[in-house]
Each structure stands twice: as structure tokens, then as C-alpha cells.
Amino acid sequence: MKIVCAIDGSRYSQWALDWLRRIHAHRDGSLLLVHAVDMTQFKAFSKLDRQSRSTLVKVLDVSLEAAARLLESAELKAVTTWAQVRAKLLRGRPAEAIAQSAKRERADLLVMGSRGVTEFQPMLLGSVSRKVLLQAPCPVLLVKKPARALKKIVLGTDGSVESWGAVTWLEQLPEAIRPTVTVASVIPPLPLEGVRVPAGALAIGDQVEGVLRREVQKLASRVAGTLRKAGFSAKEIVMTGYPGAKLVELAHRERADLVVVGSRSGRSAQEYFMGSVADTVVKHASCSVLVHRG
Q1: In terms of domains, do 135 and 158 share one?
Q2: Beta bridge partners of 240
């Protein structure tokens, strides 16, 4: 397995490194540590006088040196447990640079903290971690809490290619890691709220919901059965409501260590930020989240 881990000196990126020990047999894979430095934002200052420009260049050089030391420190720590470790300093807008690095490496997993040292509020619209989710070519693990034994996972499934890809990802965890998985399928509410509809239409809506519940139950049972065959302890649950919110509630109730959800690639930024189940979970879940990109 090829893993790219983005670090930035924050406690979240340190937690990301620690998480890798929990979910991967590191002796069998390679790890690339990356840190992105954005110099593009200083192009607007090219017309500074000579002395000011010289001072700015010196400050930027110091920034690059600090970034190199950060990577070196992380690499020295990682080599004690990983057979193949590399470190690379990236230049450019962080989200784009990190996603492109994962693409070039053909990474199987991209890991990063959910907040960086410059993000003063959790998961701001347009934050680096959410931008990476839009652009990443592989599953992304966003780390929100310190690593601990991976005992409970909530898996959201809707029958899509992406959600089945998440099941496959779980099956590839080391055999020593087989946590309890709660497989959750959510029936979204029918669009009847807030409008006046005939009683007959409401009755038909109840019938439709009954049909949907049976189909969703079959799906959840099938996914749970697949995981049990792979050695997991798995149970299924069917809920009704807004999927993202329901998955967040379930993760809190189950005290999950990780939520795993699928998300389509190729979404526009507006579609992702405003309507994505994955984005709701990423923003509001108190635990770490793995988003499986399709």
C-alpha cells in the first residue's frame, strides 16, 4: 500500500502519523511525507523596493528551511517503524499540491489532519482539508483526534460504487485489526414536509417508505454479511432522516473511533460543500473520518 501523509507541524498532523500505526501494517507499504509551502501568494509583492524585496526573500528562505526541518523530523520518527519512507517539500497552493502529489504517487490512501496550524475554526468553508477532499484521487483519512485502538467503526452505505469501495478498503486492513462495524443505511425523508398534500398522497408515501426500508435493509444486511466473512464483528441498522446528520448522530451514540463514507469524485465545489453527505460527516463528526473517493 502506498500512503501519502500531509504534515504541517500542527498537533493534528502529528495525530495523523500516529493513526497510521493503527490502521496499516507499515512494514508492507511505503510512506511519503509531504509539506506544502505556498509562495504564489507573494507574487503580488514583486514591485516592492529593493530592500523590502530582499527582506521578504530572506523571510521566505527561513520558512523553507523550517519546512525542511519539519519534514526531516517527521521522517526520522517514521523510519523507526516504516521500511520505506520518503519526505518531499511541495511548492504551491497546499490543497492542489497535496492532491497532485497523491495522484503522481498513485497513492492508495491520503492522510492528513482535519485542521492545520492556520485554520482558526474547525473545517472552515474552503479549508485545505476540504479542498483536498474535492481533488484527491484516492481515499482520504481526516484525523480529528489522537490515535487509539480502532475498536468501533460506523460505515455509511447506500449501494453506490463508492460505498462498496469503502467496504473493500476495510477488508484490506491488517488481519489483526478487525473492529466492530456498524453498517448504517439511511432512508432520506420524502419531499413532503412543509407542503400541503392530499391524505391519499401521504398514504402512498408511507407505502413507498416501506418498500425503501425493505430494500435498504437488504443492502445493509448484505454489507454486514460481507464484513463478517472477512472476520469483522458487524451489525446493521436502518435509519430515516437526512443521511449525513444521522451518521453523525450514530457515530456519537456508538462512540465510534472512525466513520467511513463514500463520496463521488468529479463533484463541483458548490455541490460538494452544500449537499454532500460526506461533507456533513466531515464537518460535524467528533471522531476521525475516512472518505472513500470513487
Answers
A1: no
A2: 187
109: which strand partners?
Answer: 3
Query: pTM of the prediction?
Result: 0.82
* Residues 108 and 226 both lie in one domain: no
> What gap in Å lies between CA 208 and CA 237, rounded to an integer?
19
Domain containing residue 269: 149-294
Which pLDDT tens digits describe the chain residue by residue (294 residues)? 899 999 888 888 889 888 887 776 555 678 999 998 876 655 555 565 666 666 656 766 677 788 888 899 888 888 877 888 999 999 888 899 999 999 999 999 999 988 654 444 444 444 788 888 888 899 999 999 887 888 999 999 999 899 999 999 999 888 888 899 999 999 887 654 544 545 554 445 455 667 788 888 999 999 999 999 999 999 999 999 899 999 999 999 999 999 999 987 555 554 544 458 888 898 899 999 999 976
CA triplet 95, 259, 120: central angle to 5 degrees? 45
Q: What is the CATH number of the domain that holds 76?
A: 3.40.50.620
The DSSP code for 29 is: S
Residues 62, 165, single domain; the answer is no
Same domain, 60 and 78: yes
Cα 231 → chain centroid: 24
